[in-house]
Amino acid sequence: MSTFMLWLRKYQGWFGAAGGLLTATGLYLGLVASPPDYYQGEVVRIMYVHVPFAQSSLLAYTALFGASAWYLWKRDPLIDHVAHAAAGIGVFFTSAALVTGSIWAKPTWNTWWTWDPRLVSFTVLLLILIGYLMLRMFIDERERQARFAAILAIVGGIDLPIVKFSVEWWRTLHQPLSVSPRGVSYAGDMLTPLLIMAIGISLLFTYMLMVRTQLLYLRQLLDAKKGRLLSQAHL
Amino acid sequence: MSFIRAIGWIVWKDLVSELRSRESFSSMLFFALAVILIFSFSFSMDREAIKELIAGVIWVAFGFTGIIGLGKSFTVEMHNDCLEALQISPASKGAIYLGKLLANLLFILCVEVMLLPLFMIFFNLELLEKLPVLLVIMIGGTLGLSALGTLFSALTVQIRAREVMLPILLLPMAVPVFIGAVEATRGLLSGQPFDLYRPWIDLLLVFDVIFTIVSFWVIDFVLDD
Q1: Is B165 in contact with B159 (CB distance < 8 Å)?
Q2: In a domain, A4, yes or no
Q3: Residues in chain B closer than 8 A to A138 (CB atoms)
Q4: Which of A32, A64, B13, B18 keeps 20 to 30 A from A10, CA to CA?
C-alpha cells in the first residue's frame, strides 16, 4: 500500500473523533440550549445543520477542483481517487443542503423553491456532480476516466460562479424581489453553536473523504488483482 | 501549417462533408420541426400569453436542436478513425477546436434562421423588423452553447453512452447562456426599449468569450491520446 494511503489510515481517526465530538456538542447547543429566534421561532434550528451542509458542499467542490487540477498537472492516480471520493461525498452534502434549505424556506419564505442565486447555483452544482459521477461510470480505461473527469470538474468550477452571478443579475434586473430573504444576522447565542457545527461537519467531511479515498483505492487494487488472476487462469 | 489556416481547413472540411451528406443539417431541421409542432399544440394561447412565453419556447427549441448538431459534430469523426487522424495531424488541438466550433456555429445558425419563419407562422409573431437585433442575440446564444458543446462533444464521443452524456453535461453548464439569451429575446419581442435588455446581450458576449477561452484551454487534455 502506498505511503499516502497509509498516512490517511493513520490519521483518519483523529478527524473522525474530533468531528463527531464537535458535531454532537454543536447539535446539543443548537437544538436544545440556544433560544428560539425572535422572528423565525423554532424553524431557525434547521439552520444549524443547513449552513454547515452548504459550507461542506463548497468544501467538497473545492477539494474536487484542487485535486482535479493537481491530477492534470502531475497525473498522479492517487490524487484522482481523492477527486472521485470528494465528488461522491459532495453529492450527499449538496442534496442535504438543498433539502434542509427547502424545508426552512417553506415556513419562512412560504415557498419550497424560488429563483434565488444560491438555490440555483447549488442545484447546478448537484447536477454537475451527478454528471461527473455518471461520466466516470461510462469510461472503462482508468487514465482516460481520470483525465476526462478532471476536465469536467475544472470547467464546472469555472462555470459555477458564473451561474451564481447570472442569476443574481437576473433577479436585480428583471424581477422585483417577491420573496425577500431577510438578512439573517447571527448573534451571540446562535453564532457559537453554528460555528462549532460548521467546524465539526467540515472535520467529518474530511474524515469521510479520507475513508472513501482509501475505499476507492482498495477497490481499484482488487480489480487489478482480479484481472491478474483471470489472465493467469486463462493461460 | 499556420494556426489560422488550420482553422480554415477544419471549417472547410466540415462544410464539404456536410454539403455532401447533409446528415447533421437535415436531422437538426426535422427534429426542430417536430419540437415546434409539439410546442404549438401544447401552448395554444392568446397573443398576450405568447409574448411572455415565446422567448423560452424559442430557446428550448434552439437548445435541443443545437445539441443534435453538436453531438453529430464529433460522431461523424468516428467513422474510418477520422478522430485519430485529426489527433495526429499537424494542426494544433486548439485549431481543431476553433474550427469545429465555427463549423458548428454556422450549421446551427443556419437551421435557426430557417426556423424563424416557422415560429412566425405557428405563433403569430412579427419578427421581420426585429430581425437584426434578434440575429445578434441568436449568434451570442448559439456561440455560448457551441463553445461548451463542442468541448463536451469532443469529450463524450470518446466514451460509452455518448448521446446521453452530452445533454447531461452540457445543459446545467449552459444555464447562464440560456438565462442571457432568453432575457434578451424576451426584452426584444415584448417591445422593451433597447437600453433595457442591452445588458443581457453584453453579458451573453462576455459568457461567450469566457466559455471559448476555457474550452480552448482544456481541449488539449480532451484530444490528447
Answers
A1: yes
A2: no
A3: 159-161, 165
A4: A64
Give the count of Cβ contacts less than 8 A between chain A and B.
75
Q: Does residue A98 fall inside a structural domain?
A: yes
Nearest-Cα residue of chain B relative to residue A165: B176
- Pairwise CA distance, residues A179 & B15, whole Å: 50
Enumerate the β-bridge partners of residue A11: none
Phi/psi at A91 (5° precision): -60, -45
CB-based contact B175:B155 (threshold 8 Å): no
Phi and psi dihedrals of A73, rounded to 5?
-80, -50
Question: Could you tell me which of A209, A231, A186 has the C-alpha nearest to residue A88?
Answer: A209
DSSP string computed for A44-94: GGGHHHHHHHHHHHHHHHHHHHHHHHHHHHH--HHHHHHHHHHHHHHHHHH
Cell 443556419: give the residue. B110
Contact list in A for residue B210 (CB cut-off 8 A) is 158, 162
Collapsed DSSP state (helix, strand, coil) of residue A2: coil
The alpha-carbon gap from A183 to the nearest alpha carbon of chain B, in Å, equals: 26
d(CA B39, CA B151): 29
How many residues would you count in chain A?
Answer: 235
- A159:B183 CB<8 A: no
Q: Provide the number of structural domains found in chain A.
A: 1
Question: Domain range holding A135?
Answer: 16-33+42-176+190-228
Question: pLDDT in tens for each of the 235 residues of chain A?
Answer: 688 999 999 999 999 999 999 999 999 888 888 777 766 777 778 888 999 999 999 999 999 999 999 999 999 999 999 999 999 999 999 999 999 999 988 888 888 888 788 888 999 999 999 999 999 999 988 999 999 999 999 999 999 999 988 888 877 765 544 444 444 555 567 788 889 999 999 999 999 999 999 999 999 999 888 888 888 776 5
Q: Is residue A185 part of a domain?
A: no
Kindly list the residues of chain A whose beta carbon comes within 8 Å of any beta carbon in chain B. 72, 120, 124, 127-128, 130-131, 134-135, 138-140, 144, 147-148, 150-152, 154-156, 158-159, 162-163, 165-167, 169-170, 173-174
Question: What is the residue type of A76?
Answer: D
Chain B: give the shortest CA distance to residue A124, in Å.
6
CA distance B206 to chain A (A): 10
CA A84/CA A156 separation, integer angstroms: 15
Is the Cβ pair A162, B176 closer than 8 Å?
Answer: yes
A155/B175 CB distance under 8 A: no
pTM, two decimal places: 0.91
Q: Is residue A216 part of a domain?
A: yes
